[in-house]
Design goal:
Shape: globular
Order of helices and strands: EHEHEEEEHEEHEHEHHHH
Oligomer: single chain
Number of strands: 10
Strand content: 15-25%
Helix content: 25-40%
Number of helices: 9
């Protein structure tokens, strides 16, 4: 039995999770959850026992000094809660940690125990994978679920992936078997510039999360960081003719593949998202009040798609 002393009754809670490691190309997913914690001042209320799930020769503890006292931080997964204010407040349970080294089923069951006790209505798991995508184009975000009804209601893909998976895929399936609605959001990170951070991919994940759970997420300096990141990669690519040529090839392939998507319906959908983020009414529509107060590294997610 999980006892959550000091955690108030939550309002329409959604659990948002991300894990460092194989599911987190460019650290895009874990940075997204860290951003939510920072912007909404998340308060940690629980941490999983590191001894149960981590190999400390793989994920080593770190030593630091605190007021002259030597202390150790152990690798683990922590849970925090934030309240999103506005006309329709709701709570987010944020899960941020490292992909466990062992006992994945027990790990997922423990997280689901927290979800059950807190009354979580939806679990959203963020991931990032390396892909053949150019850094000059919008970051592709795929949203997948194992629940056919949820896929229809939330405009998601029903996952049909077969192959190796990470903790994102395992946790999503654990949620499905437990009867907890679950969604995975995946960002595709250019494989030729995979080193973290990747603020452009982080920003894309947060924008898609914003649409999915209907909250306004304060983005802080992320948009400017994303622009600076792209300018920096542009400069690096321009210095190497082979890289520049390769990027152009990716651009042409991406643009050709997306031509059928440039329909009036797709353009209207993106325009509505643009307006919604700025509290502007679409033509002929009514103003929408604000609702907030505020990878697998390679083939995986074609993966959980």
């Amino acid at each position: 039995m999980i006892e959550l002393e000091g955690v108030p009754e939550l309002i329409d809670p959604v659990m948002v999770a991300a894990f460092e490691g194989w599911n987190d190309a460019g650290d895009a997913a874990s940075t997204a959850v860290a951003h939510l914690e920072k912007e909404w001042k998340g308060e940690v209320f629980a941490a999983l026992d590191a001894e149960d799930y981590y190999d400390f020769q793989v994920n080593r503890p770190t030593v630091f000094m605190d007021g002259g006292v030597r202390k150790i931080t152990w690798p683990t997964t922590r849970l925090s809660v934030v309240r999103v204010g506005g006309d329709k407040p709701r709570d987010l349970v944020l899960v941020r940690g490292i992909e466990p080294s062992m006992r994945w089923r027990s790990f997922c069951n423990e997280l689901l125990g927290f979800a059950h006790e807190l009354g979580v209505e939806l679990v959203v798991i963020l991931g990032a994978l390396l892909g053949d995508t150019p850094h000059t184009r919008p970051v592709p975000i795929s949203g997948t679920t194992s629940d056919a009804d949820l896929a229809r209601r939330m405009d998601l893909e029903e996952t049909k992936y077969e192959g190796p998976t990470g903790i994102v895929g395992v946790l999503q399936e654990a949620c499905t078997h437990a009867g907890v609605p679950a969604v995975s959001l995946w960002a595709a990170v250019p494989h030729y510039v995979s080193q973290p951070p990747n603020p452009k991919a982080t920003l894309a994940l947060l924008n898609r999360l914003e649409d999915l759970i209907d909250v306004r997420i304060p983005l802080g300096e992320l948009p400017e960081d994303a622009r600076a990141w792209q300018v920096g990669v542009d400069q690096l690519a321009a210095e190497d003719s082979e890289v520049a040529e390769y990027v152009q090839t990716l651009e042409e392939a991406r643009d050709t593949a997306e031509l059928p998507e440039a329909s009036g319906e797709a353009i209207a959908r993106e325009f509505e998202r643009y307006l919604r983020r700025r509290d502007v009414s679409p033509p002929g529509g009514k103003p929408k009040p604000p609702t907030a107060g505020g990878g697998p590294k390679g083939d995986e997610d074609d993966a959980e798609d």
